[in-house]
Amino acid sequence: MSDSVTPDGALKQMLKETVIETLHEQREMFYEIFTEAIEDFALAAAIREGEETKPVDREEVMQLLRKTS
Predict the structure, then answer these.
(1) How far apart, in whole angstroms, are the C-alpha atoms of residue 27 and residue 21?
(2) Rounded distance between C-alpha atoms, residue 5 and residue 11, angstroms
(3) How far apart are CA 2 and CA 5, in angstroms?
(4) CA–CA gap between residue 9 and residue 24 (Å, rounded)
(5) Splitting the chain (69 residues) into consecutive groups of 10 residues, what average pLDDT does each group show?
(6) What predicted TM-score, i.e. pTM, was given to this entire model?
(7) Of the candidates 57, 54, 53, which has an alpha carbon nearest to the alpha carbon of residue 45?
């Protein structure tokens, strides 16, 4: 890259191309990041939902788990 000043339009285009190239080259990494973020949102939603439901006895949970295995 030269030391000369680049017009705003050309600089913007170079930045876009760089971001697109990075996304293509690092696709798996971004996939993992987004997957983890979605899982975190789902876990947070499940926790909020759980806070609004009535508590259950540990033995009830264990009985249900035994039935499914």
Answers:
(1) 10
(2) 9
(3) 8
(4) 23
(5) 67 93 91 95 95 93 88
(6) 0.51
(7) 53
